[in-house]
Amino acid sequence: MRKSKLEHRKLKEKGFKAPDGYFDKVEDEIFARLTTEKFPKKIGFSVPSSYFKNVENSVLKKLGKENIQTETGQKIPEAYFESIEDRVFAKLKNEKPEVKVISFRSVLLKRIIPFAAAASLLLFFILNSNRDTISLDNVASTEIELWIENDLITLDTYEIADVYSDIELDNQDYFGDEEIIDYLDDMNLESIILEN
User: Fold this and answer.
1) Under a CB-based contact definition with an 8 Å cutoff, are residues 110 and 117 in contact?
2) Degrees (nearest 5) of the Cα angle 11, 13, 16?
3) What percent of the chain stands above pLDDT 70?
4) Which pTM was predicted?
5) Among residues 43, 45, 62, 46, which one has the least CA distance to residue 54?
6) What is the Cα–Cα distance from 126 to 147, expressed in whole angstroms?
7) What pLDDT digit, counting tens, does each position of 139-158 carry?
8) Phi/psi of residue 35, each to 5°?
9) Terminus-to-terminus CA distance in the chain, angstroms?
């Protein structure tokens, strides 16, 4: 967006004007003033001659006089280091540590058997609580017929005879030989074999 000529004139009239080369010289002038005001040219301290050669010895002498004791509070008996090994081994032989042995049987009796008993009781109750009593009264007769048709229950003639022992069966032929032969002639035996 372009500014109008009037806006340019207003900006030029309101602002301050910096002298030529002001920003090039300002940094040098500030540092020059700071060094003359804060840091005087004359140094206030002087190092004596051979100061650095003798300073270590003088510090150690002062420390030695103030803090270092010439005698310690403990004295080592004579032949201490020659006999220490024998004395330590003698004490070790005399002091036999008490060995605590945990038998497997006690661990088995105290910890594992109660858990096994509780788990077996829990399993027993879970398995027996879900068991429904099934009797022939609860099963529908259509289900029994479906089981027999799908060969899930096999019955032979002896089992049927045991169930119906109070009924006498006649040994009569209900169909004659000729009727059976006529039936078989009319039937397509291949379709019967394929079905089964």
Assistant:
1) no
2) 90
3) 76
4) 0.20
5) 62
6) 29
7) 777 887 787 788 777 777 78
8) -70, -35
9) 98
